[in-house]
């Protein structure tokens, strides 16, 4: 069972996991066709001679798949997952067709808001790992998280 | 006519524009259903009582639409738009149904690589503006850009 988390439940060092998803060449091309129509995301032959040396998912596809796993994963703030801004977003290696990814989300900081007592910020690093345990994305996000209401 | 850009063509202060795109409620929900299935991105009624006070696009949808405009815009590095990492990514206000967005991309820094003489990094700030000229996304990306080949 998953319980909604309030800011008061979060503490640095907590680690949350996720389910996993396998990305297909078809899904990589479909996303690229809609949002990032560059040859190395669309066409195996042209990708082979590109920077990536083979078909690779758009980084924004990796980010979108990460969000999906996050929303469905163990880290469930009561008010939803709302990013105020990112401190870091990078793609250390490409996401390839056939890769299976999962998340590790670690709480880095928890900061109640002075001006808005009903909420605060949590800084969370979410690492997206492929089936070899290698990072394909590192995201450090500042999330708006509500505080536990009095009596809850 | 758009000419492919090499690192050697870039200089701080240059500003590049883009075309525009209008986002519909249907597109917001379709993206959310695939990648960010949270009530405030999926359902007008539940969005009305949420943090966003109405239907809002997933930030990752805003990012993906921005990438599409970037790929089709005036800023066209010869090797493609390849992000090594982001220094900043934030969503100052929500992207709403009916909003029309366009980009302003400003070159902030240009840095040839010491270890790889054929390429370098360009730091580019891309601001995604709605029809009122308000920023819905600010992205500062470090892009891998190839240098002009000898004789080209």
Automatic annotation (TrEMBL), chains A, B:
UniProt superkingdom: Bacteria
Short name of any one Pfam family annotated for the protein: MaoC_dehydratas
Gene3D superfamilies named in the record: Hotdog Thioesterase (3.10.129.10)
Domain MaoC-like: 12-124
Name of the protein described by the UniProt record: MaoC-like domain-containing protein
